[in-house]
Design brief:
heterodimer; A: mainly alpha; B: 145 residues; alpha/beta; five-stranded parallel sheet; two-stranded antiparallel ribbon; 7 strands
């Protein structure tokens, strides 16, 4: 993508992604409530929550935690910026992982046993989804012969035809990335209760708001990858990304949380069977 | 006008309650009353909560727990005492181990009567607490200025 277009795309992403991500989160809460037979909060509720958190007192356990949480937000934004500028997909994935690592460090820096459990579980989650994410990028490279998001998006044929297994595997690990049941082992959303609040236990006020906004950016980026599978037709891509998200909400409301062993095991089996299987098929073709 | 009244997160603590009021508090979350439509979430973490909802009376064992939870909450915060026991000690008032209502250990902003308190009155109490929350936020920003 040319310099000017890429800059515009990055600016649009930085400005619009929190709006879109927040709205998606609001719709998510509404649909979840309706699935449970409740009326549900207003669509703008996630924004109210974040604005409220901004107004709250900020309790800091360790002065470094603010910096780590800020790094988490910044690297998630960089991830999306690389992606929507049409940059290197592999680099975007590594920036995403780095962002997640900063969240874990932030949780560890608070010395709270609850945050420790959350951080350990967050690491298990990264272990669970990372192979499949890498296989997704590898699969896209094998089909398009490029790591550039722009080249992948401009590929003349939808990637889903060559990568159905990888798409299904990616949807499977999206449940982990969106922090949905049955894989919300480190922290969950909505009215789910748990032992305090996992990885974000010690964050309050602005820091919690930053984690929430980072999550919106992250969701938009992940849905962007889903769109990449259908990139030759933008309308179909957006519709299918919406359907994928709806499927995740449906799974969330129909499952209770699994143990981490099952989360890790099932994610690796899926990566091995669907991901490696699909790549083996491409290599042998 | 802040966004505090639009997104009140509760932490619920059962201080030696008979579970009657606790079940009524949880009933507020069910489809019939669904307090989430006002943005209310029952959050299990004092650091994230705005409203401290307590049921039951205070005794020696739960006194430090209540104080600890209250101190961990971020300002502005309000306390809602729910049920006869939490407001005054109720029928356990004269017991040798009971100190009385929640206001013996932490400042209480809203008292919700009833044994057990009805979900409607609990929601009413929380809505009253939102007004107090807004006022506390105003005072907080005034001090900051």
């Amino acid at each position: 993508m040319s310099g000017i277009n890429a800059t515009i795309a990055v600016i649009l992403y930085i400005v619009l992604a929190p709006v879109v991500g927040g709205l998606i989160s609001g719709v998510d809460r509404k649909i979840s409530a309706r699935m449970q037979g409740r009326y549900g909060p207003p669509i703008l509720q996630p924004f109210y929550d974040v604005f409220k958190l901004m107004a709250k007192q900020n309790i800091v356990v360790n002065k470094h935690q603010k910096f780590y949480v800020l790094c988490f937000l910044v690297f998630i934004i960089i991830t999306g910026a690389i992606f929507f500028a049409g940059g290197d997909l592999l680099l975007a994935i590594f920036a995403l992982t780095l962002g997640s690592v900063f969240l874990i460090i932030a949780a560890y820096s608070t010395y709270s046993p609850y945050a420790y459990i959350g951080a350990e579980r967050e690491m298990l989650q990264i272990m669970a989804y990372e192979p499949m994410v890498i296989l997704t990028v590898v699969g896209m490279y094998m089909v398009t012969k490029s790591f550039s998001v722009f080249d992948i998006a401009m590929f003349d044929q939808p990637l889903i035809y060559s990568l159905p297994g990888i798409f299904l595997g990616f949807v499977f690990i999206l449940t982990i990335k969106f922090r949905k049941s049955p894989f919300d082992i480190s922290m969950s959303h909505h009215a789910h209760q748990e032992i305090v609040r996992g990885v974000v236990t010690e964050f309050s006020g602005k820091e919690l708001a930053m984690v929430e906004v980072a999550h919106w950016y992250e969701n938009v980026f992940l849905l962007g990858i889903v769109c990449l599978f259908f990139a030759s037709n933008p309308v179909i891509a957006i519709v299918l990304a919406a359907l994928t998200y709806f499927l995740e909400i449906f799974i969330d409301n129909n499952n209770s949380r699994l143990k981490w062993q099952s989360a890790l095991g099932s994610a690796w089996i899926v990566a091995l069977v669907l991901g490696v299987g699909n790549i083996a098929f491409l290599a042998l073709r | 006008m802040s966004y505090l009244p639009k997104s009140p997160w509760l932490i619920h603590y059962d201080a030696s309650s008979c579970n009657g009021c606790d079940i009524e508090v949880l009933a507020c979350l069910t489809p019939l009353y669904d307090v989430e439509r006002f943005g209310v979430l029952n959050i299990g973490n004092p650091k994230h909560a705005d409203i401290f909802v307590i049921t039951g009376s205070v005794n020696e064992q739960n006194k430090p727990v209540i104080q600890n939870l209250y101190n961990q909450m971020a300002e502005p915060k309000v306390v809602v005492a729910i049920g006869a026991c939490a407001t005054s000690g109720g029928i356990f008032r004269e017991c040798y181990n009971v100190q009385g209502g929640i206001d013996k250990v932490i400042p209480v902003d809203v008292y919700v009567p009833g044994c057990a308190a009805r979900p409607e009155s609990i929601i009413d109490g929380v809505v009253k607490a939102l007004g107090v929350l807004e006022e506390k936020h105003k005072n907080m920003t005034k001090v900051a200025k």
